[in-house]
Amino acid sequence: MDVLLSVCLGLGLAAACGFRLFVPFLVLNLAARSGYVALDGSFEWLISTPALITLAVATALEITAYYVPWLDNLLDSVASPAAVVAGIVVTASVVTGIDPLLKWSLAVIAGGGVAGAVQAMTVGARGASSLTTAGFGNPLVTTAEIGGSALLSGMAVGVPLLIALVVPVLLILAVRRLRRRQAIASARPD
After folding, report:
1. pLDDT score recorded for residue 1
2. Cβ neighbours of 38 (radius 10 Å)
3. Rounded to 5 degrees, what angle do the CA atoms 173, 178, 184 make?
4. Which residues, at least 6 apart from 26, have a Cβ–Cβ distance to it below 8 Å?
5. Whole-prediction pTM value?
6. Which segments in the chain show pLDDT lower than 70?
7. Fewer Cβ atoms within 10 A, N terminus or C terminus of the chain?
8. Is the distance from CB of 14 to CB of 92 less than 8 angstroms?
9. Residue 123 in contact with residue 80, Cβ under 8 Å?
10. Count of C-beta atoms within a 10 Å radius of residue 189
């Protein structure tokens, strides 16, 4: 049961990385510092005080930067590959009690995949907002993304088994959005 809980925790935090990169790491740091979450031994650095300070500052800067109209779209181009890496790292940091090869395979495929899918969904939402509102609706999208990241992170730490229901719903939404964008793109004349 501990392995299942750690996998759910990892995938929930990875999905949260798709919304915001640093919020899940900050939540994980606080939960691990309080003894609520156990980290894999090689990731103990995540609970250090310098890590806490760095993650708090990075979270504040990331959140602030996404409220700057032109910077938010620029950050999405950097955040997409970074979200995949963050999803891998956060998943690997909390999945314990299994063979390292299985753990890293799970982290790369599931953790990175979930983070990338959620990030693709947020990029699509921001792109649609930019096109339909000339960027004026982007602060609403940003607020929803921050809330989604904080909610998923808290849920992953507090009720990890619930993540087994929430993450598949997010993945279905992401796939539908991507298919819709592909259908629209293929319907346009060249």
Report:
1. 62
2. 14
3. 125
4. 52, 55, 56, 59
5. 0.88
6. 1, 185, 190
7. C
8. no
9. yes
10. 3
Task: Please state the separation of Cα 88 from the chain's center in Å.
Answer: 10
pLDDT at 68: 86
pLDDT digits (tens, 9 = 90+) for 134-144: 888 889 989 99
Q: What is the pLDDT of residue 114?
A: 94
CA distance 20 to 98: 28
Residues 90, 111 contacting (CB under 8 angstroms): yes
Q: Which of 6, 141, 180 is nearest to 14 (CA)?
A: 6
Expressed in percent and rounded to 5, the helix, strand and coil fractions of the chain are 85, 0, 15
Please tell me the predicted confidence (pLDDT) of residue 190.
61
Token output for 112: 């990175």
Q: What is the largest CA-CA distance in the chain?
A: 57
Give the H or E element holding residue 13: helix 2-19
